[in-house]
Structure formats: C-alpha cells, structure tokens
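INFO batch 0412 | record 1 of 1 | parsing
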Amino acid sequence: QVQLVESGGGLVQAGGSLRLSCAASGSIFRIDYMGWYRQAPGKQRESVAAITSASSTNYRDSVKDRFTISRDSSKNTVYLQMNILKPEDTAVYYCNAGGMRRDFESFEVWGRGTLVTVSS
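INFO prediction complete | emitting tokens
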C-alpha cells in the first residue's frame, strides 16, 4: 500500500502565501509523478500542477507565475508554493502520485485533501 498525507492548508488573506506539502509512504519502489489538484465548492476537481521524476513541470494557466511545484525525491515529498493567492484559489487541494510498488505493481493514489481558504 502507498499513502499520501497532505499538510499546509489554512486561511490566508488575498495576496498572501501558503506552502502545501505531500509526503508519500509505504511500499514504494519508484514514484514517476506527483501533482496537485483542487476542488472548489460546486465545481469539478481540476489539475493545478504536476512534476515528473525528471523534474518536468506543468501548471494550469491560472496559477502560472504564482505557484511553484517542487519535489524532494529523497523524502518522497512534493511541495506547492502558492504566492499572490486570490479568493478564486479557495478549494480543497488534493495530492496525487503514481509509480511502482515494491511488488512491481503500478499504483496511483490520492491524499485526503487540505483546505485552502483565501479571504478577500
């Protein structure tokens, strides 16, 4: 089994910053990608940013130049630095990861989410 645990959400004023963390644990042989999604009330879940094992990144247009995704492979952890936060960034943020377990079965897992609230 592989598990993800997110942390770092909270309440922040518009223009402020937050840093989310997501740590993977369990029977991990290799992590191929890690990413962040978010779901605002009444809306569908959407991708925010992702990073591959080769450190290739991609972002949704609305967060480019404000959010930065990074990873610490030695800790199986991914981070999302969020700057210049806007009220429309308010959502539950979910971590997602995929790779291979030690039994050489592939996996894709989701965290339980962490709430980010941006006040105007």
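INFO post-check: The chain has a mean pLDDT of 97.
INFO record closed
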